[in-house]
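ugh ok so i messed up the first submission bc i forgot one of the chains. this is the corrected input, ALL of the components this time, i swear. 768 residues overall. if the numbers dont match what u have on ur side tell me asap before i send this to the collaborators (the ones from the other lab, u know who)
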Amino acid sequence: MGVTAARGFRASGVTAGIKASGTPDLALVVNDGPGYAAAGVFTSNRIKAAPVVWSEQVLKGGRLAAVVLNSGGANACTGHEGFQDTHATAERVGAALDVSAAEVAVCSTGLIGVRLPMDILLPGVEQAAKALAADGGEAAAIAIKTTDTVHKTAQVTSPAGWTVGGMAKGAGMLAPGLATMLVVVTTDAAAGAAQLDAALRGATRTTFDRVDSDGCMSTNDTVLLLASGASAVTPDGAEFAEAVRAVCADLARQLIGDAEGASKDIRIEVTGAATEDEAVDVARTIARNNLLKCAIHGEDPNWGRVLAAIGTTSAAFEPDALDVAINGVWVCRGGSVGDDRDLVDMSGREVVVTADLHAGDAAATVWTNDLTADYVHENSAYST
Amino acid sequence: MGVTAARGFRASGVTAGIKASGTPDLALVVNDGPGYAAAGVFTSNRIKAAPVVWSEQVLKGGRLAAVVLNSGGANACTGHEGFQDTHATAERVGAALDVSAAEVAVCSTGLIGVRLPMDILLPGVEQAAKALAADGGEAAAIAIKTTDTVHKTAQVTSPAGWTVGGMAKGAGMLAPGLATMLVVVTTDAAAGAAQLDAALRGATRTTFDRVDSDGCMSTNDTVLLLASGASAVTPDGAEFAEAVRAVCADLARQLIGDAEGASKDIRIEVTGAATEDEAVDVARTIARNNLLKCAIHGEDPNWGRVLAAIGTTSAAFEPDALDVAINGVWVCRGGSVGDDRDLVDMSGREVVVTADLHAGDAAATVWTNDLTADYVHENSAYST
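and heres the new structure output, hopefully the right one now
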């Protein structure tokens, strides 16, 4: 399951006591080799949490022996002391597993601006090391949840004999430059660090980077890919990249499906753009329009709000050439009233908004959620 | 009151029947001269409503005899027919007042993508022309309301003998490049079109352009300034510009105070920026962060969300030099935990978030609102 679907990995998830709720809050993923190549992608937020700064540094070596992840605290905006806490965590993992701390990535998620309770966390590391198991992937996925209502895992197995599997957490502060989330993907394919890096960057660019639940970018986003080489099979490059992409896409879709307070998963498809960058920009601008997100929550095919959003971008298009469909009904044609809006059925959880710019051949898809009273409720009461 | 505070103007507000609610929905403002100089500022949205396209063209002449405004329909995304509707409205006003349609500005507000009921609107113009009165400013301000709970007027009188007065509507889709709104400002000062244009652009740049209730830019934003010259006093340039700014600032503050579903008015002050543009960019980015807006709704001084927002900008700053205060308590110092968050009192309607970037001497203020379940409710049920 998840990070232990591929051979050569053990994992665990335990209740260290970091969270007041008493639910599992510490996960460990260990690569037993024989290979240790790894790659990582991190938040593009300039305010980076201590574990992100640490793990970025560790990944420069292209090797990971283990990943330790905690929920219950983001260890962001915690100054020099916060960085020392991350370092101490990696050291404790290294000691427990007899590996170098310089090959241990650290991930944290939770409230910003609060120090982690190290007197609780460090004993938790010992506990997690003792609980490591070849079928521990599910326990690990459970231990990294914050406001997630379900844990998220995915996997793909190649007929060639290797597997890619992963786990993710994230339910709020989901926006590009990686949705707010922690993701660990493992594989038993025999792949080097450069191949992993290329596959991971290619995959995140069109999956996690195109999930934008609430426009808010986190300080802690981390996606890691570890290869044990335990299958002893060197994968075909394209097939491997596609498997990593598929696992990332599956996990990204699960993140949207479990976003805080959401009642709709919205697929924004922009076609006919002059360039892919412009397609992404337009799709993201639509995805961030609060008025449209409210309208979709109310199952109101208010295409005027789609046009008002598109009009704020600098993408190439002519206003009187824009077509917009909601769930397949072209309610706006040529920038004006199109087919009967009463034909639109928005009763399902998934809603598709399609905008054709008629300015070229490029296209992109961004996923978002509706804006609901439950979102407001969850996020107005989070830290108190 | 409002647009009739200055001499030389008459106004009216009537119930034409455009709105199903049966509340006033058509306003007329007439300049009786002797001067007719005017200026206008319009939405920067590339999707412009028909009345915006019309009025921009009219204002090129620098003269206005009258302004007709309707609520109950935005006449946006209504194609060539929608533009003909606007033209016909201006013609009917021209005929009723014996002025050229080419000196009649038209403003519309309401749902996008729906044609106006011209069979109701045009007789309404006749009715409004008959109701014109020297004290009609309040009736006009009432007739342009959509989801506004109160009508908005402001005025400033100079010891030199001239007055600037205005009215505004707008309660949702409030964002820069003008908050979604219609604003008419009048003056009896003897000012030419160039002076009006300079004063109006200077005023909107730091008032309406820095109101960002929900990040959503409208297709219909219009701010007009008309001068009758009826005081026969040529104003001091700086004093006049300040009076126009003060009226715009007063109206902008009223818009924020009446924003859809809001329970807090949030003043985002960014100081220590390298440039004013960067200060505005950082302030606007903070103002658009849904998670922070939810936190403030919950009276939670969650400064981590302020830092996470700042970190997504490209403004000059060092992460470990950022200070953030909420209602005067510096809860974040040096990018990390500052003073005790329990000292922050957020019980009032107005909340001040101050971010000092320590990167220069520039500053800017942007106003926004909290994000509430009522906002979601109003905007998920708007067009249905």
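quick check: Chain A touches chain B through 66 residues (CB under 8 Å). that seems consistent at least. The longest strand of chain A covers residues 265-273.
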